[in-house]
Amino acid sequence: MSTPGTRLDEEDHTLVAAALAGDREAFGGFVERYRAALQVHCYRMLGSLDDAEDMVQETFLRAWNKRTTFERRSAFRSWLYRIATNACLDHLDRRARQPVPHDLGPGAEAATSPSELPWLQPVPDRLLDAVSTSEGDPQAAVVDKETIELAFLTAIQYLPPRQRAVLVMRDVLGWPAKDTAELLGMSVPSANSGLQRARAALKEHLPPRRLEWAPDTDPTEAERALLQQYMAAHEKVDLDAITELLCADARLTMPPLPVLYDGRETIVAFAGQTVGEGRYGEFRLVPTRANRQPACAKYVCRPGDDEFRAHSLDVLRVADGRVAEITTFQPDVFPAFDLPPLLSVGARDAGR
After folding, report:
1. What pTM was computed for the model?
2. 154-168 as b/e, with b when 16 or more CB fall inside 10 Å?
3. What is the Cα–Cα distance from 45 to 106, expressed in whole angstroms?
4. What is the pLDDT of residue 7?
5. For a tag site, which of 224, 227, 323, 327 has the least CB within 10 Å?
6. Cα separation, 63 vs 80, whole angstroms
7. Is the dihedral of CA 215, 123, 309, 255 positive or negative?
8. Shortest CA distance to 157 belongs to which of 210, 87, 96?
9. 166-172 long-range contacts, Cβ below 8 Å, gap at least 24?
10. What is the longest distance spanned by two Cα atoms in the chain?
11. Which pLDDT score is estimated for 351?
């Protein structure tokens, strides 16, 4: 059977032989080179970076226990992807997760929303860069595409797990139908049918005109400038400036909180009520990148404090030079981005 990816004759035969013979150190060193790529794969499947990390460890454990079943004529990388995909499916079987619809309030339009996915987490670009710089890794080109943005991650969470797996294996990783069907224990026609259903369902959950706003891997100068303006406006709590930066139909979500603010006026009104006139404290914002999108970490110094404390992480979707969507995450995601929990007064450059 043909398998996608690099074949074994292009890999380190000596290291593979030692690893498969039971040398734990050799095995650990060999599989470690695939950690970042597998973590991104599991993250796509699960939408949670924490769960993805757990599934990578589970993959390595299963691979060690099943090392004698590896067929040297196939690619070791592909073998690991098979194990990782099945680990994710088993995890989803054990912990069935369904989007949690909520009342969007009067006048709000029904829409796929990150706030309906309490488990959703962002992924730092440094992890994606680690995959993209892996020599000879076929994932390198894939991570640069829009299949890692929050909109895509949100949309595929609405697919049944096996449809999600078919979509990821075929359209993201580029596996042939035969290999995908064998991995999932189904016929080729069933796999192809599942792929068509998954593609149709995905379109229903993606934002309109998505292909027109999907960003390139590298942030543009305009995008950097917009992020700086966004940060300055929030540090000053300048509601007029915030208004100018938002699209008319912008929306704000705060997973895992079940809230969605639709429209520029609604978002600005919420900001005025919560942080207007300095009632919440003084803010400092630090730029970062998440899911190939501009992002910033917010820190707040409340009256009487002498340090800025981690508050939230905003991930922005940009359209037509303005902010079209803000997804705000809780400060528990800061460690994944190597962001400190505290900033001294005046500190501005952490995480730059």
Report:
1. 0.87
2. bbbbbbebbbbbbbb
3. 33
4. 46
5. 224
6. 7
7. positive
8. 96
9. 166/191, 166/194, 166/195, 166/198, 167/195, 167/198, 167/199, 167/202, 168/41, 168/44, 168/45, 168/85, 169/85, 170/195, 171/147, 171/195, 171/199, 172/44, 172/142, 172/147
10. 67
11. 44
pLDDT value at position 71? 75
Whether 138 and 172 have beta carbons less than 8 Å apart is answered as no
Closest by alpha carbon to 338, among 84, 94, 124? 124
Cβ pair 1, 182 in contact under 8 A: yes
Residue 260's Cβ-count burial label (10 Å; 0-12, 13-18, 19+) is: buried
CA–CA separation, 318 and 224 (whole Å):
11
Residues of the chain where predicted confidence (pLDDT) is lower than 70: 1-12, 72-74, 102-111, 132-145, 208-219, 346-352
Whether residue 267 contacts residue 331, with contact meaning beta carbons closer than 8 Å, is answered with no
Letter for the amino acid at 21?
Answer: A
The set of residues, in sequence order, having a beta carbon less than 8 Å from that of 225 and lying 6+ positions away, is none
Buried b / exposed e along 283-308 (16+ C-beta atoms within 10 A) = bbbbbbbbbbbbbbbbbbbeeeeeeb
Q: In Å, how far are 57, 269, 339 from 85, measured between CA atoms? A: 13, 44, 30
